[in-house]
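Can't paste images in this forum, so I'm doing it all in text. The chain is below; anyone willing to post the predicted structure tokens underneath?
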Amino acid sequence: MSSLRQFEYALAIAEQGSVTAAAELLHVAQPSVSQQIRGLERELGVTLFTRTPAGLVPTAVGRAFLRDAEVAVRAARRAKATARAGADEPGGELVVAAQMGLGTRQLPGALGALRRRFPRLEITVFEEANPAELERLARRGVVDLGLLAGPCGEGGLYEGHHLGDEEFVVVLGPEHAQLAADRVELREVAREPWIRFDHGSALDGVLRDVLRDNALAPTTVARVSQTATAVRWASHGLGVTLVPTSAVPPGFEHLTRPVLPAVSMPAVAAIRPGAGPAEMALLAFLRQETWHHTGFLRSRVG
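Text version of the structure:
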């Protein structure tokens, strides 16, 4: 018998154009996706996708199937949320997605409190560097709570709750002259090599806008996928980088300085209207966390 998981896999393939990309989007193994789709096609007795030079595209019968599959998946998500809302102690799975660099210090404490409150709840958390990918996951109903920078772009599917603002800091090598300053003017490091983030990621978008707004065009020495990697490489003198305050790993605070002009971004929790008790509890726990500016880091090492 076909399952909602198979429907979700088929929808992801239609969206991404390949099994590999769909597996990456869903954070599952590629062979699992292929096996599930083959089983679904055998059960239905139809071919859902055809291979073209541009990738996998739905057949005519596949397009008709996918329209109904999307309705079924959305209905199942709504039913799950309704059941959670009426449960004294929610069970099942809660999926939390965070834009890379946000909530690095705040999420662990909030999630720990949530687990203590709802011990039967299975929590899945992942970081998504690309905001467009995060929006696609949200549109498909995969995400129960999203932690992102800026307003929700989901056309009313999600409500945004402002948690605070994260100030960005520049990370310098241990011998860098600018460590003597309380704040670093961006023009003072304009000629430095920069450690940047993957193209299309939210963090690289922030850095790109900052450099453009200040008429700076520094050299990019490396691109990385994780904030911790950028900080560690900067600490070895490979170049400088710009990250949210909370993304600085413990032990590296002394290598950070706020910048002039100041750079910050809002931290927003996105949940569906009428969310269940687990989502609302996590929102409350996130509100209790400190969403700080750079004074927090400096006070720890000053």
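Residues 294-302 have pLDDT under 50 and may be disordered. The domain at 1-85 is CATH 1.10.10.10 (Arc Repressor Mutant, subunit A).
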